[in-house]
Amino acid sequence: MRSKFLGHFPLEKAKIDDLWQTATIVFDTNVLLNLYRYSDDAREEFLALLNSVKRRCWLPEQCASEFLKNRIAVIQSQISAYDATAKSIRSIRDSFAGSKGHPFISGGNFENLSQVIAKIETDLATSRSKFEERISRDDIAEEVSNIFEGIVGDGFADAELNQMFTVGADRYREKTPPGYKDGSKYEDPATVAEKKSKFGDWLLWKQLMDMAGSEKKSVILVTDDRKEDWWLEASGKTVGPRPELVSEFLHTTGQNILIYTPNRFLEASKAQLTTTVSDKTIQEIRAEHDSRKNELAEFVENRSRIDYMNEPTALRDEKRLVRRMQPYGTKDLVRRGSLHRKLEMDIVSELHSEKKSFLIQLARLDGTIASLNETLGTESLENSFNSGLAQQLEAAEAARDEVQWNLSRINKKIRRLDGY
């Protein structure tokens, strides 16, 4: 049985030990982008580890492209995080301030608190300033570039890329991992950039299998992707990588693959590669992984709630009507059929009205984004950030993603109703 379903069984320890000494090590985009989110100490240790194993590393073109595309957005999100933290710190101080003082704290202690908060604000301002400098002079990107110089894979030619988009659409429709959880990013992606974003995980996976097959090399993949199209979970616990991934990789390339989260990779590397990563850094990276995993779960839960609340009233009425009709016999169903169909038509009409409204919003946002991109093309990165143009572009693109998600939701409902 094992030989038929290898993806469902872990490799023997001796084989795992061998792979840690011989396999090519690949880091996904999200792992590299996390370097901006780690503390200085944790980042330095992680980069030191990357430098120590870079002769065994390889970076898919898709990962390199996504890293360069998304790094500024991550930098800006970190700047925003510093601003939010500084605001919270100030609110603590302000809550104890006032002409009459505070009944629960003495003047001396308030002075001590103010001094501590002032020092924290100074530290935050210094760190924030470093991130602002990275908009135009990015020391992290420079180091990542140096580590992976000469070991970045080739991208797909145009004709092959279009074929990959077609294959990706089929895989997503069949929910074949990885990547199908990104299927709602763009309902009908129009540009190559939109298609590469939607099918990014599939393009990475294909490039990875192509390299392993041609080079006859097994792979250790490190990814911070937390979605179910990468990991098998049970009762909220991660069991391991999806068996389908392990099986496809083996059957397609003839090679083995080990898949780790960043913290698991660091833990294993201490034993397998005798690295000197500190327990403190591993704990920080695990905490970062867990916090972002919880954010994802919260996001999915909120999406489901928003999806229900955004449903037209007629659609919720239709669902209740279907439930009421279920106990009746055939004659009653026929008699009620005309009412059911009329309600169904009302729902479709309402959905098309919503769709028209979102399409108008999308056209406006596309015009705004095009205008901002044109303006940004004439300015340096530093000037564009200082003038607020980069932030406006990021906000407009986020709004466009939200509109496209809503259009995807509506189109699915229309197709479902039209199928009756």
What is the H-and-E element order? HEHHHHHHHHEEEHEHHHHHH
Q: Write out the strand line-up for the largest beta sheet, numbering strands in chain order.
A: 1-2-5
Whole-angstrom Rg: 26 Å
Which term fits the overall shape?
Answer: globular
Rounded mean pLDDT is: 80
Instruction: Tally the beta strands.
Output: 5
Instruction: Please give the count of helices.
Output: 16
What level of helicity do the residues show? 55-70%
Give the biggest sheet.
Answer: 3 strands, parallel
- Gap between N and C termini: 42 Å
**Unreliable runs, pLDDT <50, ≥5 residues?**
296-340
Q: What proportion of the residues form beta strands (DSSP E)?
A: 5-15%
Structural class: mainly alpha
Describe this structure in words.
The chain has 16 helices and five strands. The two termini are 42 Å apart. It has helices at residues 13-22, 29-33, 40-53, 61-96, 107-133, 139-147, 158-173, 192-198, 200-215, 243-253, 262-272, 279-310, 313-325, 330-376, 381-386, 389-418, and strands spanning 24-27, 219-222, 231-234, 237-241, 257-260. A three-stranded parallel β-sheet has the order 1-2-5. It has a two-stranded antiparallel ribbon with strand order 3-4. It is mainly alpha-helical and 420 residues long.
